[in-house]
Design goal:
Radius of gyration: 25 Å
Helix content: over 70%
Structural class: mainly alpha
Keywords: Membrane, Transmembrane, Transmembrane helix
Organism: Eucalyptus globulus
Distance between the termini: 40 Å
Number of strands: 0
Shape: elongated
Strand content: under 5%
Protein name: DUF4220 domain-containing protein
Number of domains: 2
Number of helices: 14
Length: 333
């Protein structure tokens, strides 16, 4: 009897529980994933890694449960309205795209972008299967479902591109091209590097006679970010097991001899933050020409979520469970 009760409870809540859990994991990663670059607490890092590993698994299983329910005759399987299940499937596909704050937990994760692509293709197929089973007979949420589906496709495409760009092979290839173009530029115009370096030295605004161990903060935050980005472009070659050119080495030595100790640490801190963003977030996919195109498409797609909210809010929900409606509102918000 107990086993039957547990089985009935599972059949009743399996879809709802996976949708709610997927939503909570997304919120957790959005809020706490950036903490990984600031703290070394093993418990928090473990929770972040667990959430990162679970977020794809939960979304995929949720879509699988919804797909399975379409062919089930169980009363519990059909307790959740079919159109609402299709709507939830679109949100699970959206969750599969992951938050912008984390796309990888280690360098090896980015190299597995083909695995993510294959999983994404299967999940899109399962989601479309759900639509084909439901919408011919139930058009209640067809429009908002398609709008969220568009947002999910865009978000997953952006994630896959970010994983591809941050993989070791792509990073190394882009760095080699950058080094080659820089060497050619220096050969054609030897004063180019000196002008860039002199400009940074002038912006230091260090008092005459200040020494390298001076701990006074002199640089404004905007200048620190600008200088950190300049040195990030130099030192990022280490990520690809490359070395910078001689001119860059001399420039960095000259710079850090003239900057105060605290300002040097501030510049290095921001520089490390740039490296983290490149390796573990969607930064590479966002801050590029194609990234801006993706963001424009994403803006249109996420505007569609707002439209989906408006459409869902105006629909008559007499046949829908109050709990299911509240879950849907949580997903939309």
């Amino acid at each position: 009897m107990t086993f039957i009760s547990i089985s009935e409870l599972w059949n009743k809540w399996n879809t709802r529980s996976f949708v709610i859990l997927s939503f909570l994991l997304q919120v957790f990663l959005v809020l706490f994933a950036p903490l990984r670059k600031k703290i070394m607490n093993d418990r928090i890092v473990f929770l972040l890694r667990l959430a990162y590993l679970m977020v794809d698994w939960v979304a995929a299983f949720g879509i699988g449960f919804i797909s399975h329910n379409q062919g089930s005759l169980s009363t519990y399987a059909i307790e959740v309205d079919g159109a609402l299940q299709a709507f939830w499937a679109s949100f699970l596909l959206l969750h599969l795209g992951g938050p912008d704050t984390i796309i990888a937990f280690s360098l090896e994760d980015s190299s597995l972008w083909r695995r993510h692509l294959l999983g994404f293709i299967f999940q899109v197929g399962a989601t479309i299967y759900v639509y084909m089973q439901i919408f011919p007979s139930n058009h209640l949420l067809a429009i908002p479902t398609m709008l969220v589906f568009l947002a999910g496709i865009t978000k997953n495409a952006e994630r896959l591109r970010a994983l591809n760009l941050s993989s070791f092979s792509r990073l190394r290839k882009s760095m080699l091209l950058s080094l080659q173009s820089k060497k050619i530029a220096f050969l054609t115009d030897e004063s180019l590097h000196d002008n860039e370096g002199d400009q940074l030295i002038k912006e230091l605004n260090v008092q005459r006679g200040a020494r390298y161990y001076d701990e006074e903060v002199k640089l404004p935050e905007s200048t620190v970010v600008k200088h950190a980005h300049y040195f990030f472009q130099i030192f990022r070659v280490f990520i690809g097991n490359l070395i910078f050119i001689y001119e860059d080495r001399e420039m960095s030595r000259k710079y850090f001899r003239n900057v105060s100790a605290i300002d040097a640490l501030r510049v290095i801190s921001v520089e490390l933050n740039f490296i983290y963003e490149v390796l573990y977030t969607k930064a590479l996919a966002i801050y590029s020409l194609w990234g801006y195109i993706f963001r424009f498409i994403a803006f249109i797609a996420f505007t569609s979520i707002v439209l989906a909210f408006v459409v869902f809010n105006r629909l008559k929900k007499h046949g829908l469970s109050k709990l299911d409606v509240e879950i849907t509102y949580s997903l939309l918000l």
